[in-house]
Amino acid sequence: MILQLLTGGVLLGCVYGLVSMGLSLIYGVMGIVNFAHGALVMLAMYVSYWLNTYVSLDPVIGTPIIALIMFGFGMILYKLVIKRVLKGPFLARMLVTFGLSIFFINMAQFLWSPDYRNIQGAISKGTFMLGSVFIELPKLVASVGSLIVAALIYWFLRKTKTGLAIQAISIDRSAASLMGINLEKLNAIAFGIGIACAGAAGSLLASYYYIFPDVGTMFGLVALVAVALGGFGSTEGALIGAILIGIIETLGGFYIGPEYKYALIFLSYVLIVIVRPKGLMGWGAD
Amino acid sequence: MSELVVKNVTKRFGGLTAVNDVSFSVKSGEILGLIGPNGAGKTTLFSCLTGFHRPDAGSVVFEGRDIAGWSPNNICSIGIARTFQVVQILQGMTVLENVQVGAFLRYPGAAAARDKAIKVLEKVGMSKRAPVKAVNLTLPEKKRLEVAMCLATDPKVLMLDESMAGLTPTEIQEATSMLRQLREDGLALIVVEHVMEAIMPISDRIMVLDSGAKIAEGTPREIASNERVISAYLGDKYVKRCKV
Amino acid sequence: MANNKRFIYTLLIVLGIAIVLPLVLKARFQQHILVLVMLYAVLGEAWNIMAGYAGMVSIGQAAFFGIGAYVSTILFVKFQVNPWIGFIAAGLVTAAFATVIGLPFSRLRGRYFAIGTIALGQMIKVVFENWPWVGGATGMIIDMKKGSFWNFQFHASKTGYYYIALGMLVFVVVYIYIMERSKMGFYFKAIRENEDVATGLGVNKTKYKLLAIAISAGITGMCGTILAQYQLYVEPAYMFDHTISVTIALIAVFGGSGNIIGPILGSVILMPISELTRAWMGSSGSGIDLMIYGVFIVLMCVFEPDGLMGIARKAGRRLEARREKEVAA
């Protein structure tokens, strides 16, 4: 049983991890806590849903396309909004993404109604047994997909020139700009990638998760907690934090009761952050 | 008459011993210069004495109480104040308000605190800047404001961490005469400074730190001719200048 | 000093208008808006004490709000205690709760604190949803009593709630006015600006942070009682709604945080907009009211991060400059 639960937790955690990585990347590069991250996961789920409904694109296969769409959307969002608050006071930087989140969620509710939808006839469906562990294929596909995207991003950050420049910014902004790194452009790219992570996660989730305007809120909050656990700015930390949370959620949901599972996640956040005020691997200023 | 007695204070960060078994004392009406190369542990020593770091070993006794490990606010309450190497002020508040925050420690009433703050600003020659937001000050002004904030808490011991960095020679003159005045007022001063021309003439004693350990202590003249200090830090230039 | 006097006179005139307003706006819906404007003005001021002055940005005020609502309701429903006593108890219990929670929370800085408050709000909601004694997810209904001031219930006209909230607002504004000029206010601001400097100057930051949290939470809890009595029921989904937390922060930021007038201004402008759009768009589920909210927050953060008071200050400065020019000429 414990093996079954752990597997479930890790599978869930991988998807959380993808959402969290984007969040952490954005924070590391431009110091913005993106409270709209969950809402953007939700938007990606709807995009995935509509693409499936109108052009019969499977959400899993469509993941790269949706990630690309969300990347573009993220760049636009950066140019229109985020760029303008970067030099603003702490409260403005903090609340602006809150505003975006409220806007997107209620826009979805206004345009598409609060009804629950789900995608019929996705390619990945069914279940199978692996030893004594019972695995749902869509969840496996989603988490493997998440890991692939996460690996791609890891590769991008470590091996490409642009990626290394982005990392340089998150380590030391002023030094990076002195070295002739174009902050504006890289900020936009980093924000785009961050949102693309949310997009890819949304698309992968759309293959088995119900889709409704508020669906992203929990994903966003859980990702925030994961990032805080891992330490803001550390992408690996975010992934580890997220898997930890996936495990806490499934174990807690089973042993204590499903109604308490999110409360448990938040409780563990509070407990861990109190012991380590900057997260498990966090560094830098507040 | 009060005296700060530091005995065998040690502070480690992981494998690095930032302050290694340092002992010294300083009493009212005395200026103790604290010098040493970058990374010698001067700022860490300050932080250990003022509660921002908890020393791993040793004692810091002031007026009969061992204050090692106390919180910074309690240490400030018993009369020990410090400035920071990287200037730390309340950016969004005015100069007067900055000083008022310090003054409230001994004068809980708003009017009394305000009077005290105005007096302190006069003393450091910043009265004209009182209504300016601290963020808009020049760096030397910010450093001076920081000293004023400390003075407003009526300290008996004042620790200044490179308060004269970046000042012009005229400003250094002003600053040193202010320190002399404070010494006459009966304060005990510990002054960290890289500007040798400023610290050598005003210090009663000088203590030298290198790699966390105290390598010498004595009058400025003794320090200037101490070979260990010269090899560690000073160089011939200053030795000659002080011997004249 | 003359400036101070003018400020107080202006406040008194505004207070006069506020007292007369319900006599003019008599329709039920208008009075509903008036009650909400007042309530959120108080909530915004409470947030202001903690976030605007002491720098601890909370996005979980609904936790305190809901606890306050439940305290008075539990006392009334289970123990037949008069809601006025419940009102005071709500303030005290919420402040006590906030002090206990605040002890670990006061170690957290900036965004870690803010996320912590979100987490807190969500956790408390779950606890109440799964607590059968207080009715679980369905909550509790407050029995109708004869409408009177003594019973803290008003049925024919909602103005009673309005005046209670107004009374609270006056109390809170006077408190903040005094606080701003006192040691406490200076210490709050010092902690907001730079914790290290503050402690270095003798400020006991834990004590003052806890004070700010407790005062803010206590006031917020009492507002919870007012809403509970106004609605005559409590349920977790409503009283602990995350939207309440966000709205409170938004109102204060929109008006301008860290000063007395900001939250009042924010509430006076935003609450009617939100309620009217909701009414015009018919069904409350459409979300368009909150959409407009979202746009407001974004625009505000982008174009005027100091809030409406920031605009007012700038305008004031321009006016002064012009006047000086005229004098010079």
- Main sheet characteristics of chain B: 6 strands, mixed
How many separate structural domains of chain A? Answer: 1
Helix and strand run of chain B: EEEHEEHEHHHEHEHEEHHH
Order of helices and strands of chain A: HHHHEEHHHHHHH
Q: What's the assembly state of these chains?
A: heterotrimer
- Report strand order across the widest sheet of chain B: 6-7-8-3-9-10
How many H/I helices of chain B?
Answer: 10
CATH topology of chain A: ABC transporter involved in vitamin B12 uptake, BtuC
The count of helical stretches of chain A stands at 11
Q: What sort of overall outline of chain B do the alpha carbons produce when their principal axes are compared? A: globular
Describe this structure in words.
The complex is a heterotrimer of chains A (286), B (244) and C (329). Chain A is mainly alpha-helical. Chain A is 73% helix and 3% strand. A two-stranded antiparallel ribbon of chain A has the order 1-2. In chain A, helix 1 packs across helix 6. Chain B has 244 residues and is an alpha/beta fold. Chain B has two domains: 166 residues, P-loop containing nucleotide triphosphate hydrolases (Rossmann fold, 3-Layer(aba) Sandwich), CATH 3.40.50.300; 68 residues. Chain B contains ten helices and ten strands. In chain B, a hairpin with a 2-residue loop joins strand 9 and strand 10. A two-stranded antiparallel sheet of chain C has the order 1-2. Chains in contact: A-C, B-C. At the A-C interface, helix 3, helix 4, helix 9 and helix 11 of A face helix 5, helix 11 and helix 13 of C.
Topology of helices and strands:
The complex is a heterotrimer of chains A (286), B (244) and C (329).
Chain A: H1 2-30, H2 37-55, H3 63-85, H4 90-112, E1 127-130, E2 133-136, H5 137-159, H6 161-171, H7 173-178, H8 183-206, H9 215-230, H10 235-255, H11 261-275
Antiparallel strand pairs in A: 1-2
Chain B: E1 3-13, E2 16-27, E3 30-35, H1 42-49, E4 57-62, E5 65-66, H2 72-77, E6 80-82, H3 95-103, H4 110-123, H5 139-151, E7 157-161, H6 169-184, E8 188-192, H7 196-202, E9 205-210, E10 213-218, H8 220-224, H9 227-234, H10 236-243
Helix pairs in contact in B: 3-4, 3-5, 4-5
Chain C: H1 2-24, H2 28-53, H3 61-79, H4 83-105, H5 110-129, E1 140-141, H6 159-180, H7 183-193, H8 195-200, H9 205-231, E2 233-234, H10 236-239, H11 242-255, H12 261-280, H13 288-303, H14 307-328
Antiparallel strand pairs in C: 1-2
